[in-house]
Amino acid sequence: MILFTKLLLAHLLGDYIFQPTKWVVHKEANMIASKYLYLHILIHFAVTMLLLWDLKLWWWVVIIAVSHYFIDLSKIFANPYFKNKSIPFFIDQALHLIVLYCCAFNSDLLGNTIGLFKEINWPLVTAVVFVSYPASIIMAKLLEGMSDRIELDHKSLPNAGKYIGIIERLFVLVFIILGRWEAIGLLITAKSVFRFNDLKESNSRKLTEYILIGTLLSFGLAILAGLIYLGT
């Protein structure tokens, strides 16, 4: 596990700390002819060798560097075909992690993978999944009759409310698992403060009631998921 951690740290340093934005822009513009693409791979190789500090592992570092080159190059060529640029980015990062994992556990890849799956906390995974999109859909169905009566006179980011709800429920779930119930109260207070100006400017009782019901319902679903998890 230490080996994988070092490889992951080297990846984070090479991809995020030691890669300026102008390098990324230059790579996307010049593709395979970009000098920064090769400099980026060289930095990855150097940082990985430095962190491992073991010349016996040079072969695996070469494999990581070469695979990093082809994965990055594939991402550069694939970028124009995606409207949502986050999709190729996350695919790129996932492929890098798979390579690092295979290199770190090459001695018993299958055994380590099976062991990893056996250690997964499935009740926790189920709780996390539930408080994300399923809870959002349940809330939308429960509040469907009310949302049609609310008139919004301000613009908002697309799906911002849904993502805010998912993040807050994840926080509530974590706080319950850690036994920090008081933090949930602080979260509700913080959300109320941020919402205060919107409610004050709208001067709408219906909107206030709608937001209050939605907030309590969101927190309630997260608390329910947390209690059920603790009870399993």
UniProtKB/TrEMBL annotation:
InterPro entries xref list: Phage_phiKZ_Orf197
Keyword vocabulary terms for this entry: Membrane, Transmembrane, Transmembrane helix
Organism: Arenibacter arenosicollis
Top-level taxon of origin: Bacteria
Bilayer-spanning residue ranges: 36-53, 59-82, 94-114, 120-140, 170-190, 210-230
Pfam family, one: DUF3307
This protein's name: DUF3307 domain-containing protein
